[in-house]
Write the structure tokens for this entry.
Amino acid sequence: MATWWIDYSAAKLSGATIAGAAVGPGSERASGAIRYLDAPGNLVTKHTDRTEYRSLLDAGLGLAMYFEVGKNDPMGGFARGQEYGRRALAGADYLGFPGVVFFCADRWFRTPGFPVITPAVWGAYLDGAVSILGRDRTGAYGFSDAIDAAAGHVDYFVQCGARSALRGFAHGWQDNNVQPTVGGITVDRVLIQRPIPFAPVGGAAVPRNDEEWTMQLPSGDHRSLSFDIPQGTNQIRVNCPIDFLTVHGIWQAGDGLPPGNEFDYRWSYEADFRIDRLRPWKIAVAGGATQGSIIYTYSPANPERMGSISFR
């Protein structure tokens, strides 16, 4: 049976709504979604947010993201790719999303009324994004001209346009002819012909269940990652089964915390704490805390990205 995902921008949908929607030509139900993200300060209707993202996770859906500002995104080349890569990374960190972000050429390279996108400019744009997110988290979206020109710059591809032109190396094909209605809005359906990893290279984000929810810690040096603290959580636990990571600081915040106590730093930069397979770390959740942030460094840089935060 074919695997179909959806993408959409007109509204936010619950995971249960998507999982229950028959979108394929054989009434196949949607098993994943590609949503839009951006830095937290830029979110509008088309972008996902933490509430929707958690709902999609809880429904067990496969997930990927688009980053798109407009039809001329690639025209800024490498510098624009870095700029938009930073915005995409901020959005991914805000959500706790560890997967692939597809950068878009949302038109043919030669489109009347628009400047010509050359393969060199498009490649430089993607290279700029890769320099921020890493190649294992960066993908390309576009028509066959963009997909062909993206090969060698990124490793993940979603192609739109005629199915007869679909490249065998593309991971997904966006059907531009049939647009199902899901949750009262028109959506695109995406045929998945190669798996899109939710957590690139190694590990996976584990949806929350009745006991625990786990969020992956991407590799990085003095990496900062913000997160929501699920309601009813009593404990935050940091794990690193491969190599080790150093926690530089962690804080909790929330409207219900006592005045003057909004930020609870467990360590300063002068008193770091090492976490490895034999020495996980845990801290009690402060009463009223709803958000947190952690600053950490992997040593050595860990390509497996196996560190995680769990909430219990």
Confidence is low (pLDDT under 50) at residues 199-212, 260-271.
